Amino acid sequence: MVIKKVITEYYQIPLPVTLSDSTHGTMEYFELITVQIHADDGGMGVGYTYTPGTGGTAIHRLIEDDLAPLIIGSDPRRIEALWNKMWWGIHYVGRSGISSFAISAIDIALWDLKGRSVEEPLWRMLGGSNPEVDAYVGGIDLNFTIDELCEQTNKNLALGYKAIKIKAGRKRLSEDVERVKAVRELLGTDRRLMVDANMKWTVDEAIRAARALASYDLYWLEEPTIPEDVNGMGQIFKLGGIPIAAGENLHSLNEFNDLIKSRAVLFPEIDVANVGGITAWLKVAHLAEANNFNVTSHGVHDLSVHLLAAVHNSSYLEIHGFGLERFTQQSLQIENGAAIAPNLPGHGVNFNWDELRKHRKA
């Protein structure tokens, strides 16, 4: 079996409602970059990555101009070798960032092709710990009123979720406290509540925020400061008293190694669509396990459910606001607050290409 053809496409997907957080501002659409890998025996695998609205065209061109030529003619089953070939093929201009997004899309497609070829779902092919994964849900809801925030929470509770996340990082800390207080009162004491600041605060601001929010029993405080300041996150955890989740803005195994070894973050948060794909995601998860940490996911929940289902040290699956349900033939199954990894061959994300291509840009 050899790779015969690689097809990559770029889309701008309009969001049903305008979303906002403390760092990315207002978001009216997200970018989706897809990859199809076709083998000479007729097999095919699909991969994809995304952005909140910038950089997608660069990722698309990097795949088409540089990465696809590197792998065409190779055996798609040699995924580890192909990953390293891509990484070192563009390392001088890469080593994380856009390069990791591009490699992710191809790597995901390679694993999907392998799963389809052996007619096994991805989660079971990777080791199959438990197909039921605890899930949390929340919105990109920083600018929602408290009434809108509570309405969103009630809708999610009605869907069976038992863990909720909301955004923080308003202009005044008192507003964040008021919002967290309202949602905690709505949830009661038995459901879990996470808060995500999207890197908004300096270290001292984050410590003050954590202390102000401590009485509301937060399961974690996510990205309280910039991802480069690992020591700062350690201080926030130590002096603020709330467990920290972070990692969605880290894009390599080496970056996660530094984060995990620091022990500043209790919940390493891995995004399979930007860390280098499934190959890199598994290495980070195993590194975390070796250091006695559970991992959580960021984004692309249709893919992430397989990975958390495959490893022993999973915590929560994030049900992300950039959902693809409008463009797929089946939606992720949620039962009693848990996501169920599907039993379809590969990752099981089968796009409705005709509908998706209405938003194709390249």
Quick recap:
The chain is of the alpha/beta class. It has two domains: 3-119 and 353-359, Enolase-like, domain 1 (2-Layer Sandwich), CATH 3.30.390.10; 124-340, Enolase-like C-terminal domain (TIM Barrel, Alpha-Beta Barrel). It has twelve helices and 13 strands.
Features of the shown structure:
362 residues, three-stranded antiparallel β-sheet, TIM Barrel, ten-stranded mixed β-sheet, Enolase-like, domain 1, globular, single chain, alpha/beta, 13 strands
Distance between the termini: 29 Å
Low-pLDDT residue intervals, each spanning 5 or more residues: none
Oligomerization state of this entry? Answer: single chain
Which fold name is given in CATH as the topology of the largest domain? Answer: TIM Barrel
Number of helices: 12
Report the radius of gyration as a whole number of Å. Answer: 20 Å
Beta-strand level of the residues, as a percent range?
15-25%
